[in-house]
Every structure is written in C-alpha cells, then in structure tokens.
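In the lab's daily routine, each protein ends up as an entry in a very long ledger. A line of letters takes care of the sequence, but it says nothing directly about the fold. The fold becomes a row of whole numbers, each drawn from a learned catalogue of backbone shapes. The protein below has been through that process, and both of its lines are reproduced in full:
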Amino acid sequence: MSDSRSHTFEDAERWARLTDKQRACLDLLIERQTSKQIARQLGIAKPTVDLRLTKARDILGTANRDETAIVYARLKQTYDRITCDPIDLPPPPTLVPSHFPDGGPADAMALNDSVLAADGPMEASPPFRDFWRHDHARTRRALIMAAMMVALVLLILSGLAIAQALTTLISG
C-alpha cells in the first residue's frame, strides 16, 4: 500500500514538472497528431515540438511517443481537474402572500407612531409627513401637484396684489 502512495506522489510530481508548453504539445499528441501538425497548430517549428515532446517523455519516464501519450492521458484525467468545492446555494426566497392591499397591516403607521411616542420624539416630524408618500397612486400624486401649483399661483398673485397696493400708497 505504501508503494501505491509513492507511485501517486511520483505521478503528482511528474505532472507538476510538465510546463504549459509541453502540455499544449501533449494535448495535441493524445489526439494522434504528428509533430508537423502540432507545430502548425501551435505556430512553432517542428524541431521545437520534437524537443518539447522529448523533454516531456524524459519527465514522464516513457520510451516512445505512444507510451508518452498514454501516460499523459492517464495523468491528465487524474490531475487536470478544476479544484473547487461544489457550490451549495441557498434556496431562493419565497414571497409570502399578504392579506393587506398594500402588503402591510393597515395600522402600520399607527404602530410606528406608538413606537416613536414610547421612545420620545427623536426629531421633529414634518407637519405633512403623510401628504407626499412614495406609495400614493399616480393620480393622487398628480392631484397633489396640481393643488400645489394652484397654491403657488395664488401666493404669487397675492404677492403681486400687495406690491401694487404698496406702490399706490407710496406714490400717493
């Protein structure tokens, strides 16, 4: 049993000693390509391919190209794997149906007010906090904006009326 462990260690060491360029040549070698075909595919010279395959054969301790391809294919199947743990994703969140039309209880604002009253006012709440809310319907928001425009026009007209009255008083 210790012999198989040392054999596994030797295989891992052999695999680690192979360079990326040698592995590229060996990948094409296990597809039964010639040195000339490998050279064309990698864009290098045929003697370079032969040199890389010879060095790889020395590292793997094999006698010829066929044995090199067999040993490399076995090592590749064992060691050329993506090392990662499987991802355990949590289940996607599910929506819980609500019996309320807006998704919250009708007295949610009252609950919020009671909490603020119990703790004491942290800051002064705006006088019209329920006047403009993000959950109003578009028609209601349009009505609120129209009312604000009318109020603004009235304010401007009253300011102009006051200015005219003051001008007539001053001019005599």
Notes: The two ends are 120 Å apart (CA to CA).
